[in-house]
Amino acid sequence: MSVTSNRGPASNRPGVFTTGRENGRRRPRGYAEWNPHAPTRALIDTVAEILDDYDEHLPLTVRQIFYRLVASYSYEKDEKAYKRLGEHLVRARRAGMVPFGAIRDDGVVTYSETWYGGPDDFWDDTACRMRAYRRDRQAGQRLRLELWCEAAGMAPQLARVADRYSVPVYSATTARRSCWGCHGGGREHVDHQDTSAPGCTPLTRRHGAAARPAPRGGRRRARRL
After folding, report:
1. Is 156 helix (H, G, I), strand (E, B) or coil?
2. What is the total count of domains within the chain?
3. Which of these, 50, 62, 162, 172, could form a disulfide with 167 (CB 3.0-4.6 Å)?
4. Tens digits of residue pLDDT in 50-76
5. Are residues 98 and 144 both part of a single domain?
6. Long-range contacts of range 162-168, CB-CB < 8 Å, 24 or more positions apart?
7. Per-residue pLDDT tens for 136-192?
8. What are phi and psi of 15, to 5 degrees?
9. Which pTM value belongs to this model?
10. How far is CA 81 from CA 11, 62, 69, 71, 88, in A?
11. CA separation (Å) from 34 to 8, 18, 31, 41?
């Protein structure tokens, strides 16, 4: 993956700035040229090497890239260094130095039902779902498996392996906690930045995780690896 300079869209948008989230400094908004100092450019080159090494597992999160830098390239391991890396990658992506699709931005939560433009639209969707039918390989099993990981960034990689066995993957990251059953009787999935919501505690999260297989008639066990 080559690190290049992009002199296209940015050249047509002079004087457009936005404030950086962490440091308050002004930085260009949208696609923008960037001419980083030599150490920063060397860091972006190293990130490009990491993305090449993990090409089959893209997109990666900034946190995953950070851990690879710490483990293999003696990068500083503290929150300040992590935030600095995030800022550099924002600028590198907007300057065309790093592909947008190579890095995944987690944390967006969407609430949406399914709507149709009419009966024909409904039957088209039904036909698509029929073609996508897949048998649940866990149906009828004495125990129902779920795969949990600590960091949300690992979930896509684990899902690529677990999907063929109909095993769902959940992340239990400490930065964003997911609750089932704390709000609205068990069907609603709510992502929290903290546990301040009524009824949302570590105990209710564990209970909700254990209770999900119950309607299928399965036994409930928790194993920690």
Report:
1. helix
2. 2
3. 162
4. 999 999 999 999 999 999 999 999 999
5. no
6. 164/137, 165/137, 165/138, 166/134, 166/135, 166/136, 166/137, 166/138, 166/139, 167/138
7. 999 998 888 999 888 888 888 899 999 999 999 988 753 344 443 343 333 334 444
8. 75, 15
9. 0.51
10. 30, 12, 11, 14, 10
11. 12, 15, 10, 10
Residue 161 makes CB contacts below 8 A (sequence gap 6+) with none
Contact between 158 and 169 under an 8 Å Cβ cutoff? The reply is yes
Cα 202–Cα 79–Cα 205 angle in degrees, nearest 5: 10
For residues 24 and 92, membership in a common domain is answered with yes
Domain boundary (58, 84, 102) is at 102
How far is residue 179 CA from its own chain's centroid? 17
pLDDT, tens digit, 9 for 90 and up, residues 74-117: 999 999 999 999 999 999 999 999 999 999 876 666 778 889 99
Q: Which residues have a Cβ under 8 Å from the Cβ of 201 and sit 6 or more positions away?
A: 195
